[in-house]
Amino acid sequence: MEISEEVVIVGGGIAGLATALALKRVGIEALVLERSPELRTTGAALTLFPNAWLALEALGVAHKLTSIYSPIKKGYVINVANGATQEVSYTGNKETGKGPIAVHRRALLETLARELAPGTIRFSSKLTSIRAVTVDDEISSSIAIISLDDGTVIRAKVLIGCDGVHSVVARWLGLKAPVGSGRSGIRGLAVYPQGHGFKHEVYQFVDQGKRAAYVPLTDKELYWFSTSTFTFKDEKIAADPKLLQKDVMELAKDFPPSFLDVVQHSDLATLTWAEPKFRYPWDLIFGHVCKGNITVAGDAMHPMTPDLGQGGCSALEDAVVLGRHMAKSLLPNPNGHGQIVAVEAARAIEGYVKERRWRAVGLITGSYLSGWVQQNGSGFFMKFLRDVIFYKFLSNWVFDVHYNCGKLPNASSLSESDADQTKMD
What we know:
- By secondary structure, the chain is an alpha+beta fold.
- It has 2 domains: 2-70 and 95-180 and 278-424, 3-Layer(bba) Sandwich (FAD/NAD(P)-binding domain), CATH 3.50.50; 184-274, D-Amino Acid Oxidase, Chain A, domain 2 (2-Layer Sandwich), CATH 3.30.9.30.
- It is built from 13 helices and 21 strands.
- The protein has helices spanning 14-25, 50-59, 62-66, 105-114, 168-173, 235-239, 241-251, 257-264, 281-286, 311-326, 342-375, 380-399, 411-424; strands at residues 2-10, 30-33, 45-48, 74-79, 85-89, 101-104, 121-122, 127-136, 141-148, 153-161, 179-180, 184-191, 202-207, 210-216, 221-228, 272-274, 277-278, 290-291, 294-296, 330-331, 339-340.
- The longest helix is centred in the C-terminal third of the chain and has 34 residues, at 342-375.
């Protein structure tokens, strides 16, 4: 079977669903191909910083999450070796008033998915090959021919890879594979049926080669993570939640009792392990982030270590920026969804990549340096660099959490302005 689509998005995670919603807001229909049989909700939770809330405001869904979750006002960084505590204040964005807020990953995905039209997400759809047919040599515009494992062939004017760290689309573009950080990361949700009693604050614990944190989601659940320079040699441990929990308890035996208690209250079904991976910044600078009408977003473009908590936030930024640029590729259509002009779509994608490339490079670099400063070394110099220079002076600059990705033009205003322009011409 062969079908035609305006836009195909590979991957139904945060980046894929947010991109589909951004395109919908500007009047472009998209088909999301998700290889899983349902929404992928692994990852337990994530903290969304002010830049993510600006993106969610642009997508029109921020209020649906802020009605459930509360902002975090401050946090503490505790040096496990000497007990020294650093207080960190979190300020809200001037435009939205929202500071960082921890949310369930499932809630974010379901909120985005509910805004999409029925049939937008095609589950159990595995991409097997990509081919590009040139439309305009001058600006390298092309039509993407996508083959699925069930025999379906899709002709798409635009193809966007939101298929994660091991992106098939990124590989087709020629981007080099992400590299391992040499660390392990374990995360999960702790559940207290009678209430946990913790303040709505972030607690982070730093030790040589180890780092951990927890933050309340609701009055009964907390999100926690642990990272270390230790990596598993036995794959059975990485796949067994009970062994993962036991391993964290052992690695964190010198941590404050509060963190150990949180880990003991974990819902084992939420425990996951991964080795954080990142793309070398120079690969993003000099590599092909787009070819014609094909590009990538989210982890497919800029995988990074989790040390700034910007993986999901930057994916939401990508979606809005891509939507803004793609709106310029539409023909006027007052009766509904616009029709993409393939040649203009190629120009729009080039504009998106130009805007996002250096932002992504900065986040990848900042995330890696943040992890290095916070987790490596216990000597005087590293303590001074971490406790005085980084936390007091550099953290706000490195985090850059008030970045504004812009707003989306709505479909009706686009149709009206395009129609007016057509009359003038």
